Amino acid sequence: MSEPRTRPRFRLKLDQRRAIAGYAFTLPLLVGSLAFVVSPLVQSIAFSFSNLEITSAGYNLRFVGLSNYRYALLVDTHYVQTFTTAVLQMVAEVPAVLVFSFIAAALVNRPFLGRGLARTILFLPVILTAGVIHNLEAQDLMHQIKGAHAILTSQAVQDFLRQVRLPAKFVGYIIDAVNSLPSVIGASGVPILVFMAGLQSIPHSYYEVAEMEGATEWEKLWTITLPLISPLVVTNLIYVIADSLTSMRNPLIQLLRETVWRGAGYGVSVAMSWVYFMVVAFILVIASAVVSRRVFYEK
Fold this sequence. Notes:
Shape: globular
Number of domains: 1
Strand order of the largest sheet: 1-2
CATH class: Mainly Alpha
Order of helices and strands: HHEEHHHHHHHHHHHHH
Largest sheet: 2 strands, antiparallel
Number of strands: 2
Strand content: under 5%
């Protein structure tokens, strides 16, 4: 008689296997961060509390305590103002980028003639690091966008938008969004790609059942599409906020670079960067925590 099969004593559950796969997927990033990021990070902290002097043999550090932070927050006349401008610009651009990215992803996800060309055009700003947008802005080709902004800023159009009972602040936000259209397009390439991946992962059978129940396109959007891609909304939200606050278009990034060479020195610039980093991290944590409460995770 054959011996009965013995079940293995140690067997991982599905959630445990998925967790191990996730850690294995992120392991190269963790190793790379420890190898190439931790050391410069600690060094930058030392620079922020010191005065750096360039010498023929390299540099010398002289500890000055919190003087660099005090100078950045209390003495420098441009840092706090530019800081506030950068955060307000981010708050204004992030909703526009997310909405534009979702609409563009929904459009190019549908089958139509020339869909591949449309996807290429939408991703060009990312491939070329938004250089195409900046070049267009410097040329006369951007006059069409400026003309659209002039139309929307006319008093007649504003009165019409108010007649349809749109709040005055919302009308102003629409006008500002059109004015920043080049920046919105340049920042939307990666979010469009993420939204497209989410839309393509939704089983078509869900929509077929909804159609059999008589659901409209609007109802399918709010009951199927948005709930199922809500985790990707959080992903894109974090990406867009980080991209907006660290983009070279950000006036604060330009101020930090100018402070190194033409301002108060390297130590003050690093102190400004650390204050900015902590505020950015705080904004990301709060935004992620607030939006994650409404996220639907399919089991």
